[in-house]
Amino acid sequence: MKSIDDINLQEKAATHDKIGQEEIGQEKEISQEEETVTAETQLQEKDMDSVSKKSQNYSPNKRVKYGYIKYVSLAILTIQNAALGLSMRYSRTRQVEMFAPTAAVVVAEVLKLAICFVLVMKESGGLQSGLRTMYTTVILNIKDTLRVCVPSFLYVIQNNLLYVSVSNLDAATYQITYQLKILTTAFFAVLVLKRRLKKWQWGALALLVAGVILVQLTPSGENETKPSENLGKQSKLLGFGAALAACFISGFAGIYFEKVLKESDISVWMRNVQLSLASIPFGIITHVIKTGTITDLMKGFDGYVWYLVALNAAGGLLVAVVVKYADNILKGFATSVAIIISCVASIYIFDFHITIQFAAGAVLVIGSIFLYGYVPKKPETRTSLSV
């Protein structure tokens, strides 16, 4: 079908030809024939270019390149997911001067801000243009920035709750319980975004809840971990309550942030700059309320804590890469493998004991992750270019 621009151009050409025939006569007809030949030549070249570009888009080299990025990012995300839960738990059991979790949250946000700042500069094409874009987006559009303060505050509370949870739950139980964020995200997606879940997704959520219940009801005496003087007496109920609260906050904040992203054309990295700029003041206030001072912000920070902060800050960036180059099935695979790694590593690091009940719950949770992310393949439509 012809576009509106093509129809308008043809109408103008017809009018021009009529006037030219009256004024110039045969010379205009010759010129018109030349233009027609030229136009046909350009169309043929355009068709050849489109075929060439299409063949380039589906070239084996590009498929290999994207496949390489996809699987490398998935491997890194798997390691990051497994290492984060284990590292957070180990950081609370070490026999050293304990750092404040609120301080770790603040420093992680500062590191995220620095990384996203560099990405915005690269995206904008330079330092000056990047600073100009940030000034326009963050300062001049202050109403939009204030909207981001809601998820910023929620993310600070969520990250602090995760430290409470991992201080009272072993790494494997924490990793599995935190998958309830799938349930809470789906709940708020239906409630806020009016999404409709498929039948298998509802079934996946039921499996998820059943699996977490089995894991949580595993007798604590059967999977005790090494005691720690820094942690003191641990409460499984407190750990589960903190993880559940963090899941609800994560679900609502994620859906709210998604809604904000869809209502504007601001890039993801610029949105993360806004998030971090708003999160840092909230994080400092939370630290002052808990510790009573700001002077000991870096107390207990050593090389391991800095590694933990960097690991936490890198998580969001890895998810963004995986979402771009992979799909839900592969992302679910990465999360599932991370759960298995956490369980196996906990046996050797924390003297964790896996029971049949715990293993059954873990299998249900892993199965629910795959089932929820399942997307049935659509039948391919054959075209004239199909081989």
Supply database-style keywords.
disordered N terminus, mainly alpha, 14 helices, 387 residues
Account of the 3D structure:
The protein has helices at residues 4-23, 26-57, 60-93, 101-124, 127-140, 142-168, 171-177, 181-192, 199-216, 236-262, 268-291, 303-325, 328-349, 356-372. The chain is 78% helix and 0% strand. The protein contains 14 helices and no strands. The protein has 387 residues and is mainly α. The chain has one domain (74-225, 235-372). Helix 3 (60-93) packs antiparallel against helix 12 (303-325) and helix 4 packs across helix 6. The radius of gyration is 28 Å and the shape is globular.
Count of helix runs: 14
Please state roughly what percent of the residues sit in beta strands, choosing from under 5%, 5-15%, 15-25%, 25-35%, 35-45% or over 45%.
under 5%
Secondary structure class reads: mainly alpha
What would the principal axes of the Cα set say about the shape?
globular
* Secondary-structure element order, N to C: HHHHHHHHHHHHHH
What is the total tally of β strands?
0
Rg, nearest Å = 28 Å
Distance between the termini: 24 Å
Q: Which consecutive residue ranges, at least 5 long each, have pLDDT under 50?
A: 1-31, 33-59
Keywords: Membrane, Sugar transport, Transmembrane, Transmembrane helix, Transport
Organism: Bicyclus anynana
GO cellular component, one term: Golgi membrane
Subcellular location: Membrane
